[in-house]
């Protein structure tokens, strides 16, 4: 159901264009506000000229009637629509679409890709079969109707088929009739025959139309089609045949015979359809016939079918339950009301859910229509986005202005702080430089004390060695005296730089503090003459590397071989062990040289210890 306040309905027939303007009244019913019928002539049934003609006709009717409505429902002409009733076997509801698709492929006389088709399940037969109305129309025909509506500035909402529109109009106005009723709509190029009874509808399109009467008369009278049509409408009637006299007017005589021949052919098709409906569809015998369509108004048409079918014949009134606006000319409406069944059926699609609802519109068009319906919301969304964008832009502009003002206010403070930071950086750099220099001086001072600590520790090592040997040899010679001293120190450049003195390359050992003398010469005894320099140990003649952790100590001791032949070796190893026990020395890398050099004339011997320091000495 399409619910619109005021709208148009247009039936694009083969012989005429029928238009009506409706609105929904206060009670929810349908009100007719305006109507018009315009003949299309022979060109209306010709595809080559039809679209241009119906556009011009539609525009002229809208302008003439002053119609303002823009939404329109249209009905395609019967000669362009293929319709057929088919029965489907009882199947699950999920397979109905698939079976109808197959039936459409089998029955529609065009490839399905080239048509728009729809269907309506109208009920079920006593045997359980589904009764389906299948309708199809070529896509280019529907697209042409859309072009016409667009050129006329109208919004096409749906495209219906003539049988469906007639069915809805009849049910709305004659819903009280439950027994079998026929409705015969005689058009210009085709006719539609519909059967109605309780719970059942059947329809068939017949390829016979009243244009055939006009064409045969024009050929016989040697007239143009339009002139023959005017004479047919003004003077024509259906001959009753038999003993009735022919009219004196030759045009009337010719038309009446041609009309009777046409009606006879039409009756044959109606009778065949009636037999099919009763035999194949299980329908009842018709109790009445309603006539509609422009050709049905020809005089004696009702009498002809009443005689042939032997049933009461009436003219279909599609406005039986439709309110008529006071502005409508009732006299004019009464003359053509029987021809307006399709436009009323189209109008009912906006009023309520109808028994037959079809929409022969391509999927692409439906999508476009849906898009157009959503277009206002899309436009509103776009406008909202634009407004939001402007609002955000305005907000950012305000924020940027506030930011600029704040930056301007803070610039002097930032400049002042930057100057302070620069001064702080300079002071900090100066502090770091001073700290570095102080650290270097502290390192130098620490190295100076380090040399002192090293020499003091070596002295203690020699004292412990003397005590150890003295204790060992006391059993053999009580009161034995042991003397050990350092005679040379090589790689001593760092020590020389730190102490500001040069270590001699040979000669006497350094003077011990009072009370610590170990050499007999330092105890006031007569020293032996100085030994010659040891050629294996060169004196210190230069400065060593700036950083060194290897010191070579040349030690001399009083020979005690007279007490014990292995005493000298024991003294050398005792010195090595004590030096290794020093916390300043790497015990693994410190080694005693294997050469022990005796100096018999002086009663002494010398040996060498290679000392490796844990921390390198710096010059």
User: Approximately how much helix is present in the residues?
Assistant: 40-55%
Report the sheet with the most strands, covering strand number, pairing sense and barrel closure.
6 strands, mixed
Report the portion of residues in β strands: 15-25%
Structural class: alpha/beta
Radius of gyration (Å): 65 Å
Low-confidence stretches: 494-531, 533-546
Mean pLDDT: 83
| Amino-to-carboxy terminus distance | 108 Å
Helical segment tally?
A: 13
Strand order of the largest sheet: 8-4-1-2-3-14
Instruction: Tell me, briefly, the overall form.
Output: rod-shaped
Query: How many strands appear in the DSSP assignment?
Result: 18
Could you describe the 3D structure shown?
43% of the residues lie in helices and 22% in strands. It is α/β, with parallel strands linked by helices and 619 residues long. A six-stranded mixed beta sheet has the order 8-4-1-2-3-14, with helices on both faces. Helix 4 (162-173) packs across helix 10 (341-348) and helix 5 runs antiparallel to helix 7. The protein starts with 5 loop residues before the first strand and ends with a strand. Residues 494-531 and 533-546 have low confidence and may be disordered.
